[in-house]
C-alpha cells in the first residue's frame, strides 16, 4: 500500500513539473517590432538612415519634358545648353526631349567633419542634337546615351570627383531662364579636386584643380585652376571667380552682383573677361575658334549677362535675362514659371538671338555660318521634382 502510494505520488509530481515546464515554454516575450526606415533630419527633408549604419540617404531627382519651337539654338540634351552647331538654324518641326534624372545624396558625421556624396545620372529620349550622332537627322527622335553628370565625395571642405566646374557653380548661373547660355558663360562638366572654405561673417571661397572637358581636357600634368571668393548678406551677394587655362596659358574671370530689391524682386548682373592671345587662331576645334576656350566660351574678350526674377505669388514667377558678347552676339530670354501643385511646374519661355560675328564666315568658316542673323524660338517645359 505504501509502495503504491509512493509510485502514484511520484507520477503526480513528474506530471506537475512537466506541466510547469510546458507553461514556461509558452510564456515567451514578444519581439520588438523592427524599424525598417528611421528618419534622418540632420541634412534636411527626405533623408533616412540606411539600416545598420550611421549613413543618411536621400533618393530624388526629376522628370522633364521639353517642347521647343522656332529657329533659335536648340538644346544639346546633355547639359541643357544650346548646341553651338545648331545656332541660327531653322527647325522644320517641333524638337522635344524627355529626361529622367536620378539623384542620390548621402551624409554622415565623422571626426573629420561631414562626409557627403552626390550623384546624378540622366536618361533621355528626344530629337537628335549635337551630343548624339548615331545616324539620326535633326528631326528624328532617338534614345540618347546615359550620362553621369555628377559623382563626387566630400569630407569637410574637400571635394573630389565629377562635378560642374567651380567657375560656374560657385558664382551661379545666368538667371532662371531655360536658355541661360545663349551667350555661353562656362563649360560645366569636369573632374575636380576642390576645397571650399567658410571664413565666417558671410565670406566663403573655393580653390579647384580641374581636368577640363572634351577637347579642353588638360594635355599635360598641369591642371586648370579656378579660384573664387564670395560675400553674402541679407541684401544679396557679390562674387568673383578667376580661372587659368593650362592648355593655352590663358586667364579668364567673372564678377557678379546679386541684389534682393524686395521680397518679390531679385536682380543680378554678371560680367566676364578673358584673354585669347594664344587660342584665337586655333581653328582645329570649334570651341577654340576666335578664342573660345574652357573658361572663355563667349566670343571676343568680354561678355555680360543681366536679369532678374519677380515672384507674383508662391506659385508664379517671371524670369528674364539679357546677354551680349564682344563678337556682337546678343540674346534675350523671358519666361513665366507656374507651379500647378508642389513639385510640378510648367515653364513657358520665348528666346531671341542675334548672331554677329558668329555667322561671319571670315571669322568662323563657312561650315559654321548661321542660316539667319536673327532667331526667335520658344520652349514649354513640364517638370516634376521629387
UniProtKB/TrEMBL annotation:
GO cellular component assignments: cell outer membrane; pore complex
Keyword Transmembrane: yes
Compartments reported by the entry: Cell outer membrane
Membrane topology label: Multi-pass membrane protein
Keywords: Cell outer membrane, Ion transport, Membrane, Porin, Signal, Transmembrane, Transmembrane beta strand, Transport
Function per UniProt: Forms passive diffusion pores that allow small molecular weight hydrophilic materials across the outer membrane.
Name of protein: Porin
Amino acid at each position: 500500500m505504501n509502495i503504491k502510494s509512493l509510485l502514484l505520488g511520484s507520477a503526480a509530481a513528474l506530471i506537475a513539473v512537466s506541466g510547469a515546464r510546458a507553461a514556461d515554454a509558452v510564456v515567451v516575450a514578444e519581439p520588438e517590432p523592427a524599424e525598417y526606415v528611421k528618419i534622418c533630419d540632420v541634412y534636411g527633408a527626405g533623408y533616412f538612415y540606411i539600416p545598420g549604419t550611421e549613413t543618411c540617404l536621400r533618393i530624388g531627382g526629376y522628370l522633364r519634358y521639353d517642347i521647343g519651337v522656332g529657329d533659335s539654338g536648340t538644346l544639346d540634351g546633355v547639359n541643357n545648353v544650346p548646341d553651338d552647331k545648331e545656332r541660327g538654324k531653322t527647325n522644320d518641326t517641333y524638337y522635344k526631349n524627355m529626361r529622367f534624372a536620378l539623384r542620390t545624396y548621402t551624409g554622415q558625421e565623422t571626426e573629420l567633419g561631414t562626409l557627403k556624396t552626390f550623384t546624378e545620372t540622366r536618361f533621355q529620349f528626344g530629337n537628335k542634337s549635337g551630343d548624339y550622332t548615331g545616324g539620326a537627322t535633326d528631326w528624328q527622335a532617338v534614345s540618347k546615351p546615359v550620362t553621369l553628370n555628377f559623382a563626387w565625395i566630400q569630407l569637410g571642405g574637400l571635394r573630389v570627383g565629377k562635378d560642374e566646374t567651380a567657375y560656374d557653380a560657385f558664382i551661379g548661373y545666368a538667371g532662371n531662364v531655360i536658355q541661360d547660355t545663349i551667350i555661353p558663360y562656362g563649360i560645366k562638366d569636369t573632374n575636380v579636386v576642390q576645397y571650399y572654405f567658410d571664413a565666417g561673417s558671410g565670406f566663403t571661397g573655393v580653390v579647384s584643380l580641374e581636368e577640363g572637358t572634351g577637347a579642353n581636357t588638360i594635355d599635360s600634368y598641369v591642371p586648370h585652376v579656378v579660384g573664387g571668393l564670395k560675400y553674402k548678406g541679407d541684401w544679396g551677394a557679390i562674387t568673383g571667380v578667376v580661372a587659368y587655362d593650362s592648355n593655352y596659358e590663358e586667364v579668364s574671370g567673372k564678377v557678379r552682383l546679386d541684389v534682393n530689391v524686395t521680397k518679390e524682386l531679385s536682380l543680378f548682373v554678371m560680367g566676364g573677361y578673358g584673354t585669347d592671345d594664344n587660342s584665337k587662331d586655333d581653328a582645329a576645334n570649334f570651341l577654340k575658334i576666335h578664342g573660345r576656350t574652357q573658361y572663355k566660351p563667349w566670343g571676343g574678350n568680354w561678355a555680360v549677362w543681366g536679369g532678374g526674377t519677380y515672384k507674383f505669388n508662391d506659385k508664379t514667377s517671371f524670369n528674364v535675362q539679357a546677354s551680349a558678347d564682344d563678337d556682337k552676339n546678343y540674346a534675350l530670354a523671358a519666361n513665366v514659371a507656374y507651379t500647378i501643385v508642389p513639385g510640378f511646374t510648367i515653364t513657358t519661355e520665348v528666346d531671341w538671338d542675334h548672331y554677329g560675328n558668329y555667322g561671319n564666315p571670315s571669322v568662323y568658316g563657312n561650315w559654321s555660318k548661321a542660316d539667319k542673323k536673327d532667331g526667335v524660338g520658344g520652349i514649354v517645359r513640364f517638370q516634376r521634382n521629387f
